[in-house]
Amino acid sequence: MYAKYLSTFSPVKRCAYIANNICGRSHSLGRFSILQIAHYSTAKGHDGKSEKPPGGNQIPSGPAGTVQMRVVQPTTNKLNYDERNMKLGRVLSPHLSIYRKQLTSVMSIFLRISGAALGLGVWIIGLTALLSKMDINALAEKVESLDLSGTTFTVLKFLIILPFSYHLMAGIRHLAWYLNVFLTKPEIYITGYVALVMSLLLAACLALVSVEPQQIEPKEVGQVQDPEYPIFEEDTKSDMVPEALDECDETQEDIKPVQKGCLCED
């Protein structure tokens, strides 16, 4: 049956059919080339002649005409490792999104952020005090002139103090590890939660502290306190000069309060 069926094929078609059955799926390139040969062997142009593919060596194939045999290389874009991963949508290290969000990593990141913020704040305050002509009292008066409400001012103080309190508590937690304590995974998480709560409480307590200057009540001009010692006014109208004492008498009756010593000569 198959022999009778193959006898109706041209020699080229017959060879292509046999080769196509011999080649498996693993020989897809050779299979494609053989089928391409069979196609060109039977293809006709508009003028009724056999269509010849451009270029290549022509092999005589009998009465069906000439065929061309060529190997077509697959067109592939050569991508490097990073380009392939970016095309697949993979995020590469050290991108933070490849790590799982957990307490230890988040606290470590914010510990460094708070330290950088505190260092930058100290530099800003120091350079402002060095280069600016404004003193701390003038700056305080400008802040008071903003007329902020008590709640708003307390919230601002809390936000300013929070990096300091968090950096302090997280730093104490890190220093405790140098004592070889709290190093198990449950203890690390417990100390992390404790550090967060303590930093919030410390920031809240410091924000609620208000230091008010002591107000000195002005005294009335008419009120004059009695001196501890009596004051004797000198009589400028009298031209009398007191006589010199012949002997030094250190009794309280003879020594006046204005005299600093004995006027007698030895």
TrEMBL record:
This protein's UniProt keywords: Heme, Iron, Membrane, Metal-binding, Transmembrane, Transmembrane helix
Transmembrane segments: 109-131, 151-176, 188-209
Keyword RNA-binding appears in the UniProt entry: no
GO molecular-function term, one example from the UniProt record: electron transfer activity
Source superkingdom: Eukaryota
Start and end residues of each stretch annotated as Disordered: 44-65
Family matches, as SUPFAM superfamilies: Fumarate reductase respiratory complex transmembrane subunits (SSF81343)
Keyword Oxidoreductase part of the UniProt annotation: no
GO cellular component, as recorded: membrane; mitochondrion
NCBIfam families, per database record: succ_dehyd_cytB
Record-given protein name: Succinate dehydrogenase cytochrome b560 subunit, mitochondrial
Source organism of this protein record: Drosophila hydei (Fruit fly)
Lineage: Eukaryota, Metazoa, Ecdysozoa, Arthropoda, Hexapoda
